[in-house]
Write a sequence for this structure.
């Protein structure tokens, strides 16, 4: 049974909504994309790592509604509406919590069984077992690389100029030229034939269970959470058997409960920590490894297939733009155009890195060095310019008919662009290239371009703040009432604590959940503190889920995680906010006190608070 806690008029309620496991719920939400979903209700525009739109819950001309794809949260800075993905579905479609889950499950093609808890748990166990075997296999392959039969593989990596550090970092290995080396090793670790076959590490043929990967250098595929979910293997030596059968040069793990080729990316586990603004997309594993070794760590590759919409959305969680670095031959150009379309459909922007004099990044860096590759990155061509560049090559611009046909082709390209500034810039450029007036080109563009509608409304930011503070204070005695400044300080404090385990642990020692102004913030503080104490990051979507059922509580919780403010010193800001909250609370009590003894005691507390503030940083 899925349980969630929420608050109505500051009163805690617990409700059971569906017979569904947490794992299945997470799977359903992860299988959908909040940006893709929201795009069917509003026009979204990328803004840094987030998306903006005119709010669907109140009338406005300037967009103040934001969606954070990484955190799966939405927040309107105009009316204060806020929450997670499920709550956005509930509000936009007027659904309750259970129906919103079903709606997202249907969108993802996931069936929620009546015995969802038991079946999801069984599936989760299979997945975990495969991941365990993959981890063992990765260690086995890596160990084989260092043995005598791994010499050819070591020589291959040496020819590709890979260092020992890089080989260890990527967990590279070698699958020996043996029919059952890995199968027998896994059996010694207690795994059955059925386990091994289900994992995709072996296949059953006429001679029984046999290793899937033989005589190949091995590339572990690791997901964003650091789990080995599959492998890629490149053949060593001759890929043609005596009987004339040709082996695949590259071989990937089959689809399993742990491995979905279309939903994962090679080296994302490393690229997500690069802190770069963009993600570089390459075609091959060795391209990615060479680029990483050269010090550019925001690089990934698809898994032996063309890019999928899920991979595009995954990249856009970690980068504001995707830089496509494919071979610039005919096949690579077509693949780059497909990638541009898929990234655009996922709500993202892309540019194309063009490498001349080499077939791929690996060769380019070997021939010209990393500095030249960095320059190529800096000169990456915006996707619209790349499309127009390719179209321009198709027509003779010295010929009137060629100009006319190019303008029409250019207008078709620009019709897919949502940014009016970008459209205007390329109309000017096209006019300059062809000598045809901007007005004529714009007319052709308008003829092709469709229009998109907008949505309706509720209340202003100021009204929301007044109602919220009034609600909080009306439920408290005079000495407990908070100021708007203290309330804002609580929101900022929780926001800082939520994004730093270390600062959450500091906050837990200085201000208890009970010292927050109401049960929503108190509950959030408790959850954030508990996560930090367990060494885990706070999960915004899961915490906000606990307030489903009451709009004002959802808005209040969502605003904490959607705080965009940055501070020069988070730790000092944390102490300043705690001091402001404690001082405001004390001052409210002093103002409400009537007895001289009570006033005296409270003034002593205030003096102590001021003295203690300077010692907070030294508290262990």
């Amino acid at each position: 049974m899925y349980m969630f806690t929420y608050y109505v008029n500051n009163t805690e309620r617990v409700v059971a909504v569906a017979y569904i496991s947490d794992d299945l719920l997470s799977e359903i939400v992860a299988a959908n994309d909040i940006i893709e979903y929201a795009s069917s209700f509003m026009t979204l525009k990328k803004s840094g790592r987030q998306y903006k739109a005119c709010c669907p819950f109140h009338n406005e001309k300037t967009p103040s509604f934001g969606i954070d794809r990484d955190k799966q949260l939405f927040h309107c800075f105009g009316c204060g509406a806020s929450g997670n993905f499920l709550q956005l579905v509930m509000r936009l479609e007027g659904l309750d919590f259970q129906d919103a889950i079903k709606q997202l499950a249907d969108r993802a093609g996931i069936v929620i069984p009546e015995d969802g808890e038991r079946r999801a748990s069984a599936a989760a166990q299979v997945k975990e077992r495969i991941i365990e075997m993959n981890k063992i296999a990765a260690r086995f392959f890596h160990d084989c690389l260092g043995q005598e039969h791994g010499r050819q593989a070591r020589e291959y990596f040496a020819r590709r100029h890979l260092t020992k550090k890089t080989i260890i970092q990527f967990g590279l290995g070698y699958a020996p030229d043996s029919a059952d080396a890995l199968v027998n090793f896994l059996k010694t670790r207690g795994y059955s034939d059925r386990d091994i076959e289900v994992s995709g590490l072996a296949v059953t043929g006429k001679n029984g269970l046999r290793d899937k990967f033989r005589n190949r250098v091995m590339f572990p595929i690791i997901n964003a959470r650091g789990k080995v979910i599959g492998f890629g293997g490149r053949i060593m030596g001759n890929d043609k058997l005596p009987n004339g059968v040709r082996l695949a040069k590259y071989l990937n793990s089959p689809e399993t409960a742990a491995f979905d080729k279309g939903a994962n990316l090679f080296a994302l586990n490393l690229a997500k920590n690069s802190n770069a603004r963009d993600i570089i997309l390459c075609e091959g594993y060795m391209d990615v490894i060479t680029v990483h070794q050269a010090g550019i760590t925001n690089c990934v590759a698809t898994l032996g297939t063309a890019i999928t919409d899920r991979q595009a959305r995954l990249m856009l969680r970690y980068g504001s733009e995707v830089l496509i670095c494919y071979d610039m031959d005919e096949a690579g150009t077509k693949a780059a155009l497909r990638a541009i379309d898929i990234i655009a459909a996922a709500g993202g922007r892309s540019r194309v890195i063009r490498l001349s004099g080499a077939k791929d990044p690996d060769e380019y860096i070997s021939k010209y060095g990393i500095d030249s590759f960095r320059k190529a990155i800096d000169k990456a061509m915006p996707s619209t310019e790349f499309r127009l560049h390719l179209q321009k090559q198709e027509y003779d611009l010295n010929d009137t008919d060629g100009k006319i046909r190019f303008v029409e082709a250019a207008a078709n390209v620009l019709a897919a662009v949502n940014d009016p500034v970008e459209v205007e810039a390329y109309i000017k450029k096209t006019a300059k290239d062809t000598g045809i007036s901007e007005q004529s080109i714009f007319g052709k563009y308008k003829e092709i371009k469709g229009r998109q509608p907008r949505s309706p409304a509720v209340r202003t930011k100021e009204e929301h703040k007044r109602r919220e503070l009034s609600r909080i204070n009306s439920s408290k005695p005079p000495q407990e009432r908070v100021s708007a400044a203290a309330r804002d300080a609580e929101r900022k404090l929780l926001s800082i604590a939520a994004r730093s385990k270390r600062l959450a642990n500091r906050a837990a020692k200085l201000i208890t959940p009970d010292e927050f102004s109401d049960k929503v913030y108190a509950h959030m503080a408790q959850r954030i503190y508990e996560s930090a104490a367990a060494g885990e990051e706070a999960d915004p979507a899961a915490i906000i889920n606990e307030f489903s059922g009451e709009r004002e509580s959802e808005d209040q919780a969502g605003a904490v995680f959607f705080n965009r403010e940055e501070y020069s010193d988070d730790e000092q800001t944390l102490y300043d906010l705690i001091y402001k909250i404690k001082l405001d609370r004390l001052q409210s009590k002093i103002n409400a006190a009537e007895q001289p003894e009570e006033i005296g005691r409270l003034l002593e507390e205030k003096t102590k608070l001021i003295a203690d503030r300077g010692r907070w940083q030294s508290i262990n």
Notes: The longest helix spans residues 116-145. The radius of gyration is 29 Å.
